[in-house]
Specification:
- It is built from two helices and no strands.
Length: 59
């Protein structure tokens, strides 16, 4: 269970730096946001290509 929770603790560490709600990113969080956005774009591209291929294969 510790192996599962340890990465979550690392990712949540910046959030624990403040009390209350902070909606602005700091330092390395910009990097995490950029990587997440890039990953989302890649996932949409791969998934979209497969969906289009499946639709074209039906015709």
């Amino acid at each position: 269970m510790t192996r599962i929770l340890f990465p979550a603790l690392l990712l949540a560490a910046p959030a624990s730096a403040h009390e209350g709600l902070h909606l602005h990113p700091h330092g390395i969080e910009y990097g995490w946001l950029a990587v997440a956005a890039l990953g989302a774009l890649i996932a949409v591209g791969v998934f979209g290509r497969r969906v289009l291929a499946a639709i074209r294969a039906r015709k």
